[in-house]
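This section describes the prediction task in plain terms. A model, or a person checking by hand, is given the sequence of a single protein chain and must write out its three-dimensional structure as a string of tokens. No templates, partner chains or ligands are provided. The sample shown here is typical of the held-out split.
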Amino acid sequence: MSAEKDERRPAGELEAAVMAALWAADTPLTPAEVQAELASGLARTTVTTILSRLHEKGTLIRERQGRGYAYRPVQDPHGLTALRMHSELDRGSDRETVLARFVAQLSPDDEQLLRRLLEDSP
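The expected answer:
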């Protein structure tokens, strides 16, 4: 196995780094700008592929900028986590069982927090 192969990072780690760069930016970023923010030696084509995949997943919005695109997150980190939780819930055929098991596995503190949030919601 080559040294280059040993240095490969999992896709999830790369996606997280790209998302962190986008969340830190005040404006949408092009692939070249994301690449510069990462300062990790990734090829621009790799960054573009990651951005395209995140866009396909609905995590990013892209806006035409010149001949290419600039990307921005759909949600902040907390909102993205909530979207992922909803997505996972939608995959199940029995929402009640999924929710029941989720609640059953909450820590007492999280259960109390969830109860408070549900009582305070309109």
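For orientation: The chain is about 65% helix and 10% strand.
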